Amino acid sequence: MYAQLVKTAGTGVKSQEEMTDQEREFQDKIDRDIKIEPKDWMPDDYRATLIRQIGQHAHSEIVGQLPEGNWITRAPTLERKAILLAKVQDEAGHGLYLYCAAETLGVTRDEITEMLLDGRMKYSSIFNYPTLNWADIGAVGWLVDGAAIMNQVPLQRTSYGPYSRAMIRICKEESFHQRQGYDAIRKMAEGSPEQKKMAQDALNRLWFPSLMMFGPSDKDSVHSAQSMAWKIKINTNDELRQKFVDQTVPQIEFLGLDLPDPGIKWNEERGHYDYTDPDWSEFFNVIKGNGPCNVDRLAARNKAWDDGEWVRDGLLEHARKKAARKHAAE
Amino acid sequence: MAEVDKQALLQFLLRMGDNTLILGHRVSEWCGHSPVLEEDIALANTALDLIGQTQLWLGYAAEVQGEGKTADDIAFLRDAWDFRNVLLVEMPNGDFGQTLMRQFLFDAWHSIMLGRLMKSSDKTVAEIAEKASKEVAYHLERSADTVVGLGDGTEESHSRMQAALDYLWPYVGEMFESDDVDDAMAAAGISVDPASLREDYDALVCKILSDATLTIPESRFAHKGGRTGYMHTEHLGHLLATMQWLPRAYPGCQW
Amino acid sequence: MKNEWPLWEIFIRGQHGLSHRHVGSLHAPDAEMAVKNARDVYTRRNEGVSIWVVEAKHITATAPGEKGPLFEPSESKVYRHPTFYDIPEEVGHM
Fold it and tell me: Beta strand pairing status for C21-27 and C50-55?
């Protein structure tokens, strides 16, 4: 999922007695699945948490353009180039929809962009891993988008109207991403020995980082409980991770690739696959800035923003001049 | 079709397809790095249109060539001397202003050219031109607006756009060069003499650049060598090294 | 932040003759660019045949607190709906 370790503001779920009348009315609306809209009253903590969560989600889409964009100029056929470009373009679109949703909460796109650029806000850990061979492009679509979809589908029902509507639009567009990824890696898995090697290498490298996308276990977290009560988080991290593993293992087997984790085994009793937990010390290191690509990713975003300033200013200045001329002519 | 016509037609199709291939590739380099999200998405649309047009032009070229090749074979397995794009489209992106100036200078030619090709005696050429001309009409509208906006924007944006125009102007003339291939195409009614586009082009470009408060350089000197393949710039080799690496490193694979 | 492009609300009419519908927002320096950006951002999948753009600050909206007086009175006017009336089956479709 693209929003990880989002810190929920506040002190956890309040009981009915602890709530003010306004808070009770607000929680009641959420419990009855009535959407909260921008101008409705909402607790400050709800607003602050949503800005963090939607902002992080948006930043992930934008930074997520970079690892895949890394291969646009090296795509091996014209059709693959077009597919990849359209996909990475969609990420930009998704970032845009989400920034607009965040803006309804009283923060501007420039403000939260600057928080990404100076490190105050995070993006998903997965995008700090490199894409090293062409099969990574397939694996990213299949695994990374697959993991993201696990989280995004339930978020279509989230309590905040603009966020929910953005997720509906995103999910509609996203369904092609995972399929094109699986299609690309399947070609590799069924191709020459070298292509198969690329596919296996991509799967092995991206498997655990994909599991980390769901974040560490949060089943006992008071913060998660609050976010779930607000319906801005729908499932626990472990639930989604298990669902992802259960869905993905048969897909790996279909490709004829080796399982990336010797610990993967069907557990008849649980009715789920067992798997090895990712190395969470690696995860926290990546979050802290020590992933393989953190520095490069942020540098690329900062460069695009700084280099683009004269363009944004220039076009705005022209719009002002044009308006002034029109005004003078009237 | 006579053998000589077939060779000329092939050259003509490569010229059209290589222009869109190389420019589409250049524009796609921006993805994820544009000044603002809305521009990032718009540039990707332009690149996607150009890649789509490439598939059509080079697909037809492969058919005319008759050696059982595909558009991908033509795009990914030729060396620089076989490329027939004008030098303008292989010039590096530079800053956003240079990219949009290059786009505008090409779009203006492209839209006029496609307008003529819609009346081509070759049905396939006319069909490709018909489809592409709608896409390119929008490219031109957008690049022209941006050139005007940035030229007539801040002091900084104005001077960057003037620098971009000064840098790229010597590459404009090549688009209007004529040779035996063009004569053969014009005679067959498949295409037109590129020189005949210049008047419309100058009128359009002068109008937009004047709205952009930019000054067209006086020199009419024109670099050439791209559309004949005689002498490309050094930039093309690097572009091809990136673009063609995978299919060349792993020949015969399906992707 | 004074140099941030203004926010525009985008309305698109789809293929099937329905009214323009709000699809989302975007930033643009002026209305003309907002239309172009809307074309590039919101019609990538053949979604529209017509675009309206309105600068977000020009939209006047009902206040959430007025929901009751504005919308509840119509709840009781059930006679405005065709299903309120019983028409004998023999009369046929009406």
Answer: unpaired
